[in-house]
Amino acid sequence: MSVCALILMAMILCQGCAKTAVPEAQDLTADSKGNTGTGITIGSTYAEFAEVYGKYSVQKIDGENFEPYAFEDIEELKKAAGSETGSSENAAGSEAGSSETAAGSETGSSETAAGSETGSSETATEGDLTPSPHDGAYFVAAFYVDDEPTSVEELCSSTGKDASELADYLSSNEYLAEHTVIYRYVIFTVENDVITAIKSDYLDYNEEL
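^ thats the sequence. predicted structure below, dont judge the formating
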C-alpha cells in the first residue's frame, strides 16, 4: 500500500463515521504559490484558517500521529486577533512619541533611552521565542467518489463497511470497476499564528489499479 493510502487509512480511523461537512475539491487544492480555492493563502492568520476550515474534520499532525482537532470559538479568535492588532498599533504610536522626545533631549538622556530600547528589544526577542499554542501542521482530507465529495459517514452507509474496512474496500478491483475514487488532502503549517506553508496532493485510486 502506498504512503498516501496509509495516510488515508489514518484519516479514516481518526474520523470514523462521525457527521461532518465535506470540503469541495478546490478547498483541498493549493497552487504553487500556496493559494487555495477558499482564499486561505500563505500569510493568512490562524483565526482566518479556523473560520474557513473549522467546519471540516481536521487533524493536527504530531509526528506520525493524526489527532482529531477542535478549533476554539471563532468569535473569540477574531476578538483576540483584533486585540493584538490594536496593541501593535498603540505600541507603534508610543514608540514614535518616545523617539521624538528622545530626539529633543540632552545627550545623556539619549544614551539612557538607547539603553532602554536595547533592553526592550532583547526582551521582545526572548518573547518571540515562545511558541504559539496553535503552531503545528493541520491535515484536512476527503474522498471524491464519482466526482462527488463524500463523507466517511456516507461511505460507511453506502458500502455497509465499518470505517476501519474502507481503505481496503475502496481500493479493491470490485469497487473500482464501478466507481472512480479520488482522495485529496491539504496540510497547513502554522507558525506564530500565521500560515507559513501549504501543501496539497491527491491519490487517484483508479490510476493505481
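The beta strands are 58-62, 65-69, 136-145, 148-150, 181-191, 194-204.
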